[in-house]
Amino acid sequence: MSAVLSIAITFTLVMYGLAMGIALLRLLRGPSAQDRVLALDFMYIVGMLLMLVLAIRYDSRMYFEAALLMVLFGFVGSMALAKFLLRGEVIE
Q1: 32 CB burial (10 A radius; 0-12, 13-18, 19+)
Q2: Are 75 and 49 spatial neighbours (Cβ–Cβ below 8 Å)?
Q3: pTM for the whole thing?
């Protein structure tokens, strides 16, 4: 791996960590439940991006599979929370 790529990956990981920290703050302090759900959804997406950058850094396919599973469960969780906020129940 070249030095430029290594520096770019490190910078990207730091920025994603900062974004996750800000989203965690919004998750804990959000004025409404919708803000909290949106922050949680954003954290799933940033977590997936973080896994993809780690896959490039370590040259491993397992991180790609983990990112796919993370996003799949994140999407299902976001849909369940949205349905709960809309109707007050998840299972009809």
Answers
A1: exposed
A2: no
A3: 0.83
| CA–CA distance, 27 with 41 (Å, rounded to integer) | 10
Is position 33 within any domain? yes
Residue 75 lies in a domain: yes
Instruction: Quote the strand ranges of 1-92, DSSP E.
Output: none
Tell me, yes or no, whether 17 lies in a domain: yes
In a domain, 92, yes or no: no
Number of domains in the chain: 1
* CATH number of the domain that residue 8 is part of: 1.10.287
Nearest to 47 by CA among 5, 11, 30, 55: 55
Query: How much is the average pLDDT of 62-79?
Result: 90
Please give the residue that has the higher pLDDT: either 90 or 75: 75
Among the listed residues 37, 48, 49, the one whose alpha carbon sits nearest the alpha carbon of residue 12: 49
